[in-house]
Design brief:
Strand content: 35-45%
Distance between the termini: 14 Å
Oligomer: single chain
Structural class: alpha+beta
Radius of gyration: 17 Å
Shape: globular
Number of domains: 1
Length: 144
């Protein structure tokens, strides 16, 4: 079986306490870029707006989905972001990946202080094609 290669990047988003948030990201192996400029799981401050942070990963978001916090229950990166994001802001976790050319995917997880929603590019694209074709039953196979 071939390796699935994934990359994850967020937009810049505001958090209530930057230092606390970046410290808690270390639970997932995500370190501030200042501590490891060549890291593969990093957080970085927006040069134009130091109140906003972004995250970049060289792995699948799914690889980070669950971990045990000090209380022993599963904590997700999305939960951590939701706990710290400012009201009125949104974090968009965008993930793209592929396994050779057999599987190519894109997914975004949108997180606000109140809600989380996942958008899958295959699902979104098929719905758009159905609408453009005027055929609600149209379908296709996206993987080979």
């Amino acid at each position: 079986m071939a390796d699935c290669i994934s990359r994850v990047r967020t937009n810049y988003f505001g958090v209530s306490d930057m230092d606390e948030f970046r410290e808690k990201l270390k639970i997932f192996g995500i370190v501030p870029v200042e501590e490891n400029a060549y890291g593969h799981r990093i957080s970085f401050i927006n040069d134009n707006d130091p109140a906003k942070v972004g995250i970049a990963l060289d792995c699948s978001y799914g690889d980070l989905a669950d971990t045990d916090d000090e209380d022993g229950y599963g904590l997700t990166l999305a939960d951590l972001i939701q706990d710290h994001i400012l009201n009125g802001d949104a974090c968009i976790i965008t993930e793209v990946g592929y396994e050779k050319s057999r599987y190519v995917y894109g997914v975004a997880k949108v997180i606000t202080a109140k809600e989380k929603r996942t958008v899958d590019i295959d699902v979104f694209s098929k719905a758009a094609a159905r609408e453009l074709l005027g055929n609600p039953d149209w379908d296709t196979q996206m993987d080979y």
